[in-house]
């Protein structure tokens, strides 16, 4: 489950039957992935060129193009990484942060291989310990990203099946967290805060849960607000399957 539970971001019922990956979502991740890989190639190339001169401060020994390219490329690298994570968080069926970091490391390995001097045994492309290390780390993260995605898909399917098969119980907000929408630049539209809820399970035991929620200023959460809560009747302590929905 993502850190931000979509069920508490807006009032009204959520359609659990339309949690599909759309072409727009895929295209958005592809574009971020291209930017991410390209920027990582430049950063890997620039850092390798800079390391070849020992990052000397002497003007005559500096590789100014490599230094400038590394600094410039670092900005789209960070933006693309953030864009990927933000886009992937909208649907648990999309590859997450591990895949994005794996793509970045793969790009860095490519940039290093292009800039590194070829070893005596091998000719182009240059394959050295750094290239191999980055490549192995990238492959491990890509595999890990696939495993994480599969886990999220299974968990999301279980939560949707739970919502379809069982009626919700009534829960109440015990702590709405920070509902101050003012920021340094004026007035924020959305805030991210931890919200605490209480509900009673089938045995009468009162349970508490806290979820990170994205809240719009037009629909703030208040203490005592009633919400719908689905939980696993066989294992009420299993918060992975717990679903919270605000009432419209």
Description:
- The protein has 248 residues and is of the alpha+beta class.
- It is built from 4 helices and 7 strands, in the order H-H-H-H-E-E-E-E-E-E-E.
- It has helices at residues 23-52, 64-88, 97-115, 129-165; strands spanning 169-175, 182-183, 186-187, 190-200, 206-216, 226-230, 243-246.
- Helix 1 packs parallel to helix 3.
- It is elongated and about 70 Å long.
- It starts with 22 loop residues before the first helix and ends with a strand.
What topology emerges from the helices and strands here?
Elements: H1 23-52, H2 64-88, H3 97-115, H4 129-165, E1 169-175, E2 182-183, E3 186-187, E4 190-200, E5 206-216, E6 226-230, E7 243-246
Antiparallel strand pairs: 1-4, 1-6, 2-3, 4-5, 6-7
Helix pairs in contact: 1-2, 1-3, 2-3, 3-4
């Amino acid at each position: 489950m993502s850190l931000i539970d979509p069920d508490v971001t807006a009032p009204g019922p959520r359609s659990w039957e339309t949690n599909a990956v759309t072409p727009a979502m895929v295209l958005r991740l592809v574009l971020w992935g291209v930017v991410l890989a390209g920027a990582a190639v430049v950063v890997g190339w620039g850092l390798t060129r800079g390391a070849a001169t020992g990052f000397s401060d002497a003007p005559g020994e500096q590789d100014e193009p490599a230094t400038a390219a590394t600094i410039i490329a670092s900005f789209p690298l960070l933006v693309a990484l953030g864009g990927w994570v933000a886009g992937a968080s909208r649907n648990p069926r999309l590859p997450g942060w591990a895949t994005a970091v794996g793509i970045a490391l793969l790009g860095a390995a490519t940039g290093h291989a292009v800039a590194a001097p070829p070893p005596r045994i091998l000719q182009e492309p240059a394959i050295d310990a750094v290239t191999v290390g980055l490549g192995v780390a990238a492959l491990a993260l890509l595999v890990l990203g696939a495993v994480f995605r599969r886990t999220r898909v299974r968990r999301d399917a279980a939560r949707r099946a739970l919502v379809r098969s069982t009626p919700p119980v009534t829960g109440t907000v015990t702590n709405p967290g920070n509902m101050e929408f003012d920021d340094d630049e004026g007035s924020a539209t959305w805030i991210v805060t931890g919200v605490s809820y209480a509900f009673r399970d089938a045995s009468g035991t009162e349970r508490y849960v806290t979820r990170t929620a994205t809240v719009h200023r037009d629909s703030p959460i208040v203490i005592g607000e009633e919400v719908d809560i689905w939980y696993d009747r066989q294992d009420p302590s299993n918060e992975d399957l717990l679903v919270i929905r605000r009432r419209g």
